[in-house]
Amino acid sequence: MVPNIAVVLTDASKRILWVNEDFTLLTGYSLPEVFGRKPGALLQGAETETESILRIRKALQHQIPWKEDITNYRKNGERYTCRLVIHPVFDRNRALTNFIAFEADAADLPDGAMVPLLELREKYRTSSLKGIEEVRLSDRLKNLLEEELLFLDPHLTLKHAADRLATNTKYLSQVVNHQAGMNFQQYINQFRVEEAKKKILDDRLGNLTLYGIALQCGFKNKSTFYKVFKEVTGQTPKEFIRKQRRRVLV
Predict the structure, then answer these.
(1) How many Å apart are CA 189 and CA 114, to the nearest integer?
(2) Domains, the chain, ranges and CATH?
(3) Confidence class of residue 55 from pLDDT cuts 50, 70 and 90?
(4) For the whole prediction, is pTM greater than 0.70?
């Protein structure tokens, strides 16, 4: 599964400048609604842990990266456990210019899986705005794949995606590696596997074989589909089907 990671960019005074679409999906707030506001005032509520708030404030004050699980609230008032990573961003003169935060609903994260953006990495500790540009390009790639379903094309290449995003293949490959922790093909295959899982469980497609579904999801052959499906999910397609059927019966 490719988890939704909300990204929040603030100025040095911690007022929001930009959020990505995953932030809106996670919280219900759009960019115009949050622009200029402070994330804590927006997302924290009655049951947000005081100790967590104090630790985060201290980290921001001392301009150090921080990772915390904290109770946040969506626009509709629903509580959720937010896995939060915050990095200060400095210019070449080591002056603080921004904070960048990566957030996710802890309930949506794969058990035991490492999500690169939710790890404290040296990369952002001394980053200039180049790191933020990478995040923006990564977000644009994810949106392009989800909105236009480019991953369904079995002939999709790194160059094709780079051309669509008006960038070069070297930089896009670097961005995928840094932001997702994998190469371009692995990243695309995650989307294909998620689409295959949906189709496998779709009763309207019951007449299709697993190979037929694989072809519809952008895989070129059966062996690659089986190999990639197990790499991504930890189970074969048939094991996935059996487990889903058992859940329905329980």
Answers:
(1) 17
(2) 1-121 (3.30.450.20), 128-250 (1.10.10.60)
(3) very high
(4) no
